Amino acid sequence: MQTPTLAALVLATLGAASSSASANTVAMDGGYAGASYAEPPAPRRIEGRFGMLIGGSDVGDADGFSMGISGGIGYRIGDITLRALVAHYRVGDGSDETMDRRGRGTRAGGAVRYSFANTGEPDRQRGGLGVDFWGEIGFGVEHINWRQGGVLDRPSGEFAIGFELDGQGERTSRGRRRHIGYYMAFRSLVGQGPEMDGPAVCAGPCTKATRPSRTDVSMFFELGLHWGR
Question: Which CATH number does 45-228 carry?
């Protein structure tokens, strides 16, 4: 009657070997070989902005002090934000110049913003205060309407760098959180001015006379509020 005993011994040996193999497969360096830890999805949010522009506009040889307003809406995924922009501002000669060309400029376009550094914590459930430093590049169309007649339409690029304070609420069950704060930025608009008549000249000490540059650069300081969720 040794057959049952021998069979039981063989089954016990096979079971032990199977358990040891399973343990070696699962346990590796204190973890689990088959376990995969997926990173949490990048935080997403929708934001709106409204601000004030102060600086100088440049349209051909008409440049001077300028003020205006700006607005935008964006969708942020992680550190990247896709934005739609609009701005309305004064253009024309300065108040101390002899010529008195005045008008209004309206610009609409899109931009991509990248956050260089921020204090956001995507996994944090409670609200708090964050700081964000960012850079932006974009493209748009500028429409200029002169007060005494005439319009100018042209494409333009834009470059900006700035920072913002971000007050954040508690995270909801859907993973969203409300936010509100203010931002400051330095923004430049670059476009090609109309070709002007006249010979090459030296407007100052120079080694070669040239015609005036057709590259117009308007520079603004921007201050405003942002909000969203």
Answer: 2.40.160.20
